[in-house]
What we know:
The protein is mostly beta strands. Helix content is 0%, strand content 37%.
Amino acid sequence: xxxxxxxxxxxxxxxxxxxxxxxxxxxxxxxxxxxxxxxxxxxxxxxxxxxxxxxxx
Length: 57
């Protein structure tokens, strides 16, 4: 089940509101519009974000 379209969460790094309308499945990435931190959707029930680490660097 995808998060509700109006779902908003706070960035764990800076507290800014995250727009999660595009995060519909595990593995989707969410960027903070304020600090630029990246998060990955790791679970939908309950909706959970984790810091995204680019392993290709």
